[in-house]
Amino acid sequence: MATLRVLVVDDEEEFVNALVERLNIRGVDAQGVTTGEEALDRIEQCSFDVVLLDVKMPKLGGVEVLMQIKARLPELPVVLLTGHGSARNVEMGELLGAFDCLMKPIDIEDLLRVLRQAATEN
Amino acid sequence: MNGTPKPQENNKARPDPLLHKRRYRRLLVGAGFSIALVSVIPLVIMTLINYHQYKEAFHTEMIRPIARYTSNAKQALESALSERLSALSLMVREKSVEDLTRQQKLKRLLINMKQAFGGFIDLGLIDAEGQMVSYVGPYRLKGKDYKGHTWFNAVNLRGAYISDVFMGYRNFPHFVMAVKQDSDSSEVSILRATIDTEMLDRNILGLKPQKASDAFIVNQQGILQTPSRFYGSVLQHCPLPMPQYSPNAEVLEIPDEKGEPLVMGYAYIEHSPFVLIELSRPGAMQESWLSLRRELLVFLGISIFIVLGVVFWGTRYMVNSIREVDIKRATVFHKMEYTNKLAAIGRLGAGVAHEINNPLAIISEKAGLLKDLASMPDKPLSREKIVELIDSVLNSVSRCSAITRRLLGFAKQIDVRHEKINLELLCKDVLAFLEKEAGYRDIKIDFDIPGDLPTIESDRGQLQQVFLNIINNAFAAVEDGGRIVISMEEVDADHLAVNITDNGMGIPEENLEQIFEPFFTTKKGFGTGLGLSITYGIVEKLGGQIKAMSKLGEGTCFTIVLPVSQSSV
Fold first, then answer.
1. pTM strictly above 0.90
2. What is the ipTM of this complex?
């Protein structure tokens, strides 16, 4: 099975670092960024199978990043992460083509399953 | 949270001044006193008017019969005396001296006078020298010399004379009438008649004076001319003071010799020395008046008692009802405040959940990573790495703790309690709830607060709610990238002002007047419309004022003026 390439996007750096490391331990090729702008730059530079994207971020929010990813790379699946499960954002995300929406804190195995599913169905 | 806290009636922390028992006691006393006054004063006035009217009526009823009698008796007496004087005058004018000197003729005249008028005892003719030249009657007066006698001088002077009553030779009372013949000749003749006082008695008693009264005649020296029931027989002295002359019959109220009340009707009988007097003791009439007066006073007393009783119980019931309504209103307001607070907490909930879930997510990942690394025997886990991961976990725990503490601090401020508050710190405390949202939406928050702004004495929980409501509204009004300015200043020695200005959409002028009204909202389908009205109520309760200024498309400024000290409220 090809190595899953995941981009983790969240404004909490400690969260990103820990999750990336855990994903790496599980054989995922994970990278992490802490801003929407960095995320858009990184997907231009590298190829990913899935983007794990936090909804609430300062400046360029998760929904806007999603829109831009879908504009540039419509095939790239995006899984949303939310801290408060705001129904409005989740609905907006689904309308814009997010694959799924997970609530923090996340179970690593559930996350892996969703990421693999997103990459496979794509 | 279960149940709603009750409003503070006499809470030890800070009683609601509007519900304090002292206020209602003052209201009770004030209202009761006013109503009692307004009720009792007309009652007293009416009773006094009735009292005086009744007194006047009784007085008139007492006086009128006496006045009537005295007037009638005066007329009768004057008429009787005048008749007899006129008869004597006629005789002395029409009859010649010769006729009057003749015994038989004089006797005839006497008989005729007795028959016509009654009361004549004798007749005598006196010449210019005062000698009785002829006489008919029971006494031996022919030849008697009256020169120098008072009556002789008086009749010569005045032409007619009526004497006081005196005891005659036969020891019974009578008086004398004398008329002088007016003629051109040098011969003077005086016709003198002795009159029985029974004539006077007849005229007094014939008119029937009141029962339990006394009617008599005195002369102007106070000597009884007729017998008196109260003061004795003829020629005794009447102890009452002589009343002042009046040409009419008069009535006086005087004390008798013992100081007892007496009503005196009197009349000076013209052309005579006589004064008619009728005396009446108020007696039974006064008893009736006293009894009526007693009844009036008892009625007044009972009425006042009833009025005061009704006023007391009525105002007490009314004030208690007002207090109950005030308490209910305060309870409803308190519930609304509490509901609004819960709603505010609810609104924060989404943001707070996010803020807690982020550190929880970090804890989850760090702990998970620690576990992953510890489960991999081929990857050694250094002590530094362990400490690093655990530190991260502890930091996230602190973050969560700070958030929950802040939320609890906001939610638990239900009891009203006054303390010294730094408004700048309180405002920033409230903003801490919203700083993440400000970060996500790129909303700039600026402060313009002087460094020496004094602290104020107020309720922390309620102020937090006020600022949270206003700042939440500002966040809702501005777009992403918008700006909110919080400034504070001293208005005067006793007040501070806090201005929260946003550059949001603004409020239309027609809405600006209504934004503090309950249930007014422009967010169709969202919100209860109570937020600003509750904010308004809280600010008022804290002794402050809130107002809003706005320009459509430019932004809104809410100004909250607060008292520095609650003692000035």
1. no
2. 0.90
